[in-house]
Amino acid sequence: MKYAAVPLVLVMLLSGCAQRASEAGPDERERVKRTVWTRSLELFLEYDEPEVGKKTPFLFHFTILDSFKPLTEGALTLRVAAASGRALTVKVDAPEKPGIFRTELSFPEKGRYTLKAAVSGKALRDEVVVEGIEVAGEREKLERKHRGGNEGNTIAFSKEQQWSVDFRVEPPSRRSVSSSFVSTGELIPISDREVTVPAPLTGLLSVSKRLPHSGQRVARDEVIAQIEPAVSQQGGIGQLSAAYAEAKNRAVLAEKEYGRAKRLYEAKAVPKRRVDEAEIALDTAKAALDPLEKAVQSLKEGRSENRIMVRSPLGGTVVELFVSNGKAVEAGQALMRIIDTSMLWLRADIPATELGRLTHLDRATFSIPGFEGEFRPIRLVTVSNVVDDKSRTVPVIFEVSNPNHLLKAGMFTNVAIRTDYVESGLSLSEEALFEDEGRFFVFVQTEGESFERREVRTGIRGGGRVQIREGIREDERVVARGGYYVKLASLSARMPQGHGHEH
């Protein structure tokens, strides 16, 4: 599993939060928690309920939204203004630890304050505005103390935990989602871009020309081997010449017989079957003649110092080598297999029951485990007209461009084929979604370090997105990456009522 090995630091952080929760005293004041976002920053703010004229500790947690990592440098300037117009300014030169600034503020009068937190660093400058900071007198303080709250369903996952793992929180987006069907596939060589090179005659593979190694790229017509012919006529050039002459005579006779059968058929002297049989015989004779003709031609063009040059019939990659230098080979024996992987076929087996709703098979993308992003075939090659009687699937083949040879023949893929069904609405990354006994849920961020498990009703899926019909609002933020860690935190500890945590 992707998350089978949980980092030791995460376990320690989880146990640490649980320990702080159990050690919190019953008389400790409840902390106020606020979370505010800008385009580039998330500010999670913690502070004790402010009282007039008393210093109040404030803890600022800054997360950079591009990377979801802590802000590590820069100064923090705070300007706190009351409704009456009175204001105070405090500057913190640097974070106490990555992402965390700490200071104390003293408020001259009760009422509502606005806090502006300006961050200025080499890489980032931004300002976060926090409205409605309530400063109470003794009477309001007592009323709030007896009011209480219920955080029994809250999952605690601190900023230190979030920053230490691959984690991201983001709002759902409103967009159109196209439904798609996902199937497994495999990248395979194109039939006419794969060749097994045979030895044109019996002899010894010369040690003066090193054979290409497996994985080496060769060009079309490049010399890939040299053969020193056998001294005897048996299996050597003499045998090749004789075989070529015999095959050529058969092809000539077959061509004459085919022409004769056509003339007789046109004169209505023989049935059509006679022409078909003659045509098949001609094709067979030509197929037998072709490799021998190429071998003889290579002898004429490539013979040098009693060595025969074997040239590559296509440009590609040597994927298998069946021989080694200095070894004896027989005429027709396979020397090596070469594949041109600049173009590949993608074969996907589609369940026959799904074909009816896949109206546009050419709208396909595929992904490969371990590779970033998606790939797109350049065209649909063929759809089989026969259903496999064992798997009840229909083979579909796409053509894939591979100019940089990044993709390898034999790779397995996940193929997504879109349908015409498109809906607009809220959607999330599929990575945000969890399933439990047929029901789906996500983790919603209620505050900077607080989350809740929320059941949702899903819609169509496609392109790595899932439509959410019910369960979340557009202004909420959902764990889009690293939800497993929040799930683990929910099993480890709950956020205590009325207590924050100290860093």
Distance between the termini: 32 Å
CATH superfamily of the domain at 191-339: RNA polymerase II/Efflux pump adaptor protein, barrel-sandwich hybrid domain
Under the CATH scheme, which class of the domain at 191-339?
Mainly Beta
CATH architecture of the domain at 191-339: Beta Barrel
Low-pLDDT residue spans: 1-27, 494-500
Number of helices: 6
CATH topology of the domain at 191-339: OB fold (Dihydrolipoamide Acetyltransferase, E2P)
Classify the helix fraction into a percent range.
10-25%
Q: Mind describing the biggest β-sheet?
A: 13 strands, antiparallel
Counted beta strands: 30
Mean pLDDT: 82
Based on the model shown, name its key terms:
alpha+beta; OB fold (Dihydrolipoamide Acetyltransferase, E2P); 5-stranded antiparallel sheet; 30 strands; 20% helix; elongated; disordered N terminus
What does it look like?
The chain has helices spanning 8-23, 138-147, 159-164, 237-266, 272-302, 483-492; strands at residues 31-37, 41-48, 55-64, 69-70, 75-82, 87-92, 100-106, 111-120, 125-135, 155-156, 168-170, 173-189, 194-198, 203-205, 217-218, 223-229, 308-311, 316-321, 328-329, 334-339, 343-351, 364-367, 379-383, 393-401, 412-429, 434-436, 439-447, 450-462, 465-470, 477-481. The chain is α+β, with helices and mostly antiparallel strands and 503 residues long. Among the domains are: 31-147, Macroglobulin (MG2) domain (Immunoglobulin-like); 191-339, OB fold (Dihydrolipoamide Acetyltransferase, E2P), CATH 2.40.50. Strands 10, 11, 12, 21, 22, 23, 24, 25, 26, 27, 28, 29 and 30 form a 13-stranded antiparallel sheet that branches. The model is unreliable at 1-27 and 494-500 (pLDDT under 50).
